[in-house]
Design a protein that fits this description.
The protein has helices at residues 32-60, 65-75, 78-87, 102-105, 109-116. With 123 residues, the chain is mainly α.
Length: 123
């Protein structure tokens, strides 16, 4: 008999065959380094969009000042939004907490009365 730790083999009947690909069995969050790399990519992408907006504003300044103003106004909030998005961490997973319910732990008044009617023997 073989020990555990191997990859899950597909039966061949499944159209989504995985072959020797391991199955993810945990719900662990991505590591801090992975989260940081994803946030840096988002920041760089948004800041890279600002430069074309400024160039288009310069180009359209000679054609139509409305378009130039639009591109300029579009490029102004991009650094602010990029910083906000890059500093945002992924949302936490919703967790269910077990709350104390008083009704379950407190006996009813009838049960308390019956328990107080016990016979006391004095000797």
């Amino acid at each position: 008999m073989r020990g555990g730790g191997g990859a899950v083999k597909s039966t061949g009947n499944d159209p989504d065959e995985r072959g020797d690909t391991p199955v993810l069995i945990t719900e662990a969050a991505p590591s801090f380094d992975e989260q940081h790399a994803a946030r840096k990519r988002k920041y760089i992408t948004m800041m890279a969009l600002r430069l074309p907006c400024l160039f288009l504003a310069l180009i359209f300044a000679q054609i139509s000042w409305w378009l130039a103003l639009g591109f300029l106004l579009l490029s102004i909030p991009l650094p602010w939004a990029a910083v906000l998005i890059a500093n945002d961490r992924p949302p936490r997973k919703a967790q269910r907490f077990k709350r104390y319910k008083r009704e379950q732990g407190v006996p009813s008044a009838e049960v308390l009365e019956r328990s107080n009617n016990h016979q006391v023997i004095e000797g």
